[in-house]
C-alpha cells in the first residue's frame, strides 16, 4: 500500500488499484474482500490526499464534481444493494481486470496527447453538471459497487477525452470524487448493508497509517517529477494485472472466456475513442461559435487564450 497510496495521490487510479490485485491475485483472497478493502483503505488515503489538494488550492472541475457527487450518492447504494450481490467472484475479478487493462492501454498509446492538454474545454456549467451526474450515477452503480474503485478513472476519462482537461485539473478532481465515493461506500455497507467482509478491518488496520501519509506525499512528489513517468508505470501495471488474471483463471475461463475478455477490452477502447471523437467535435463547435460571435461584435479583439479552454472558472 506504500506503492498504492502513491498511485492514489498522483494518478487517476485509487489505492485499491494496487490493493485489489495484490489481495485477490497474489494472496488469493475473495474478490469481495478486495472490493471492501478498496472502499475502506481509500476512505483514508484519498481523503488525506484530497485535504492536501484543497489546502494547496489546486484547480478542480467543480461543476462536473458536484454532479458526480450527486450521481454517486444515488448510484453507489443502488449498485451495492441491487447489482454487486448478484455478481459472481470471477466476474468481479474480470470486471476489474478488463476496465483497468483498457485504461492502461489508452495511456500507453494516447499519453502524449492527453498530457498536452491545457486548461479545459469551456462548456455551459449546466452541461458540465449533467455530465458529472451521469458519470457518478452509472459508474457508482456498476464499476464502483462491484470492484470498490473506478469512479475516479471514469471521471478522469471524461475530463481528458471529452473536455480536453489539463492533467493538473483532471487528476486532482478524480482523487476528490474517489475519496467521496469511498467514504460513501463504507457508510452504506456498515450502516445499511451487511457490513464489510471478514478480514477487511485487519488488512485496513495494517495499511491505514501508510496510506494516510503516502497519498498526499504522492500529490507532492508528482508535482516535482511530472505525471507522465508515473502514468506510464501505472498503465503498464494495469495491463500486467490483466495478463496475470487471465493466466490465473485460464482453467476456469478456457479459450472462449479469454477471447471474450479480450473482446471486452476492445469494446472499452472503442468507447474511449468514441469519447475522444465526441470531444474533438465539441471543441470544433466551440471554436466556430466563438469565431462567429467575434465576427458579429464589431471591434471585438480575438481572445489571447486558446479557443475552447478555460481555467478561471474552475
Automatic annotation (TrEMBL):
Entry-linked InterPro entries: TM_pro_TauE-like (IPR002781)
TM regions (residue ranges): 6-25, 37-54, 60-83, 90-111, 131-162, 169-192, 204-223, 253-272
Keyword Transmembrane helix: yes
Membrane topology according to the record: Multi-pass membrane protein
Location relative to the cell: Cell membrane; Membrane
Residue span of region Disordered: 290-314
Xref: Pfam families: TauE
Keyword Membrane: yes
Keywords associated with the record: Cell membrane, Membrane, Transmembrane, Transmembrane helix
Main location: membrane
Sequence similarity: Belongs to the 4-toluene sulfonate uptake permease (TSUP) (TC 2.A.102) family.
The protein, known as: Probable membrane transporter protein
Organism field: Lacimicrobium alkaliphilum
Organism phylogeny: Bacteria, Pseudomonadati, Pseudomonadota, Gammaproteobacteria, Alteromonadales
